[in-house]
Input
Amino acid sequence: MPTYTPPLRDMRFVLHEVLNVVDELKLLPAHADIDADTINAVLEEGGKFAAEVIAPLNQSGDAEGCTLDKATHEVKAPKGFKEAYAKYVEGGWPALSCDPAYGGQGLPHVVNQSFYEMLNSSNQAWTMYPGLSHGAYEALHAHGSAEQKALYLPKLTSGHWTGTMCLTEPHCGTDLGLIRTRAVPNADGSYAITGSKIFISAGEHDLAENIVHLVLARLPDAPAGSKGISLFVVPKFLPNADGSIGARNGVFCAALEHKMGIHANATAQIVLEGAIGTLVGEPNKGLQAMFVMMNAARLGVGMQSLGLTEVAYQNAVAYAKDRIQMRALSGPKNPDKPADAIIVHPDVRKMLLTARAYAEGGRALAMWTTLMLDKELGSDDEDERKECADLVALVTPIVKAFFTDNAWIATSHCMQVFGGHGYIREWGMEQFVRDARINMIYEGTNTIQSLDLLGRKVLGDNGKKLKKFGKLVQEFVEDEGTNEALQEFVNPLADLGDKLTKLTTEIGMKAMGNADEVGAAAVDYLRVCGHLVFAYFWARMAKVALAKKDSGDPFYTAKLATARFYYAKLLPETASLIRSCRAGLAPLMAMDEALF
Output
């Protein structure tokens, strides 16, 4: 059975030594009283909950899965999940970063996101139940009416109700303009909603007393395509005015998907038969409201994969130190034993360090992104809010796609470290691989994320958002340009920044002639951007580690070694990616489709 130790030391390093989050947060009115001790205490207790309460349920939940009663349409989560969720609610964890006006604790999002990393390492399938509720909360908080907020937000904040987002339909996935679900106005101002949705994570379960579905549907006079989509809140049970549970609504689970991973989360086929819903925001502008939840989900999926990368690495390291197999090529390293521990072998170390570098680089980016989100939501400076919003928008597809790609690589490497034991269920590694592979697909495939990054976020505004992040890189390069000890990081970082600028211009020029050039380059382009962002944060972490390497704390020695590994062994991937981008559209489209 795999084990998990919350990486609290590394979290504190990123939060307090690299990002200086307390100083940043104190400038925001809502967090003027925040301090490091509070943040550290919350994360320590959160780590205990993750490691002690839900981690022991991960393998058993995967083996048992969810159970649907076809007569009642009720779903039971695996054994122990409901009890763990009750402890989660009792501990006040759902309210961590929610608005105090609705019963929340008002802590920064960066603290909540760090907590969620630990939850995902411990049990991704379980974490998806409360995780999706945060997205529903954010969407209603941003776009709900006063009545909707008063009715739903306290219950979502407390965790007594959970939330979902119902987008996908059997005939369409990402192309939401094709949805057919209909919403017909009722005399009382509500709507009768009819249609079917598929792939609805946490769509039905027995963990909470009510489930709040956010549903995309069309009004009778809606224009065609994405401009005719409205958003509705459709609860499983219609709430009474005082917030108590009322009548059963016409929304139910028809079937559960049988998936390759995250078995313990109920991926439901949802049927709506005249279900009563209320409109969220303006008619035909539902995507604007839903994108609040979708973007939260994309960041959340990145955190799922960061959590898997970390836990897979921890278990692979422990195995590599214990498993003896052959001798080092340069001679015995453990002469008192019949063979050496496999961690002496260079390729085993390469696999381990790949996972470690992607986990620690991802943690730095995730915490910075969420800090920017806190500033976007909490600053009283309009220019700062806009600046931070642009940076969050730019990196959101990178967090989703780069993290999940990296987790697929890292969990596969970590399974490989176990050799034949890696694909045996009892060790837990094959579950991490199965779960990680799903994360690359849902909440918008990684190709969709790549198109969003290159087509919308970069070329869509002539590179303005990209230049804002480029400015951060340039400032670091200029500030550390005379720091001889940092040149091994500064020079490659500056070089990649220049190359990305040139590559972006080239793709933009090609796309003016043929928009399909964007599709040909997008996936490779996102990965180049991901490496640039990681390289920036690894350089920042290396700066701190270099300054403290003589402190006697081996943490800084390890951090510096991992930074050097990243720059030497992982960052060079960008050379082949850039070359592939430049190869353009022609090699992909030259062959007639009849020849496939």
User: Anything to note?
Assistant: The mean pLDDT is 96. The radius of gyration is 24 Å.
